[in-house]
Amino acid sequence: MKAITFILETQQPVLVTSFQKDPNSHVSYPYIPGSAIRGALIGRYLKHPAELGEDILSDANLDRQVKRLFFDGNTRYLNAYLFCKRQQKRTLPIPLAWYRDKDEELPTPKETTNLNVRDLSQYVPEQQMSLKSLSERFCTVNERQVVLYREKRRINIHNLRDRTKGRSSPTKRDPVTDRVIQEGEGAIFRYEALEVKQTFQAVILCENDEAKTIQYLLKPTDIWLGGSRSAGYGHAKIHAVKCQNIEDWHEVDISPEQRVNRRKLKITLLSDTILRDGCGQFSVEPCLVKQAIEDKLPVQLPEATHVFISSTVVGGFNQKWGLPLPQVPVLSAGSVFVFDAQLTTEQIKTLETEGIGDRCIDGFGRVCVNWLGEYRDFCARPPEPIKNNIQLDEKYQDLAGQMAENILRQKLEQFLVDKVSDIKIQGKITNSQLSRLEIVARKGLTNPPSFLPIIELLSSLTSNASEQYRNTKISGNKSLEQQIKDWLIDPMKSSSWLNNSHELEVNIAGVTRKVEPDSDLVKEYTLRLIMAVAKKAKKESGR
Fold first, then answer.
1. How confident is the model at residue 302 (pLDDT cuts 50, 70, 90)?
2. Kind of pairing, strands 145-149 and 138-142?
3. How wide is the angle at C-alpha 258 spanned by C-alphas 356 and 6, nearest 5°?
């Protein structure tokens, strides 16, 4: 088998909704679920083989590669958890057996102190100790060096409105029966989504034959995940795709050979786990973990001596149906189970590769055996920021970028004024033609800017108008028509009016930023140059 890892960097807030008590709030998971990644790749796959047809699970298509890739369970799409750039590793959910003293808090990155964390799966604390669970969600572990992470979120407020009227509308009721005919709009609700510019590492486990296809599906860097994509949510970029043998990849740093012969067998859930009882009903009873392991391996386990669990409810959304998936109770990621037993190296590999429970294809049921060392307590810290010469606070990073762009625009404004003042216009062209040119150039100042309106104008000129453009000279050299075409062909080339000489370095609060005109900015100022030339020609013709 192969393990394909890749990084997802959010370009827009990502909203993959979890279940919350407030019906007017949509709160995203703290990670990107494997089901969202699987659904996005299914959408990409459907765009390539045209012979598949609309229903990829029809009888004619069941024997195709699509079943092995997305439906039979051999290929598993693991959750994308936060990625630590400094350590170059994927974080994992914090074990629920970890507790801290009630009065202690995680220090800030600038503080030199650590947070003392106690692993209650190793011992029973004294009764007078006042402990509290950790509020962070993810961690990296290197022996007794633990770093705690928390995802960043963005809260946006939305209101429901009539798309046609552009405003809210009241609820319509039948005057006789008082029955609601049409639900009113105007309700206020909020989205709590994953913030932009965060990196998550995803993993796909697959057979050797499917690895090449999956890597091909990951090649387009832009991908959309989750819901509300038309409202500015879900855009992410894929990079750092890596494929390796399953023997060379483990969700934890320690190989299975180094995790055998421990005093206790400790099972930690690395993702939410869906289990069924003997009647086939979904359940979160702790004893079902023991049963699931025995069903997977030829082993008999005693009852767990220590259990640290939490439960939640998960669902999903089927885009083909346009309907939500059934909601089921699950054991939460980070749950810990301790047994007086041992597993062999091969049994550990099988359990960690295949997982337990239902929907393993979507990243559920991931487990780790003897992940943590046999330490009663250890010190934990927040992640250290990646420092530049001077590190600005996060809330000022966007402001610094805007300031740098404004300085560049001021330089381009002055250059535009100087350029237009040096242009000499000779010839007779009517003001109506110049006004039309100015209007069309302004029409191209969209987001992003476009030369298409100018090109369409020049290609549809009448013979009289075309003659006026040819007879009007710019600075005695080229005709107005030829000069405009030269500006449009490649405004970034060295011989053009705007070139890379406008690249500059700006120092803002001690941080040096290198800025230069991008293609959109060049198009914008080229269109503004054409507008300025048309205005100048009209002004000179009126004298």
1. very high
2. antiparallel
3. 60
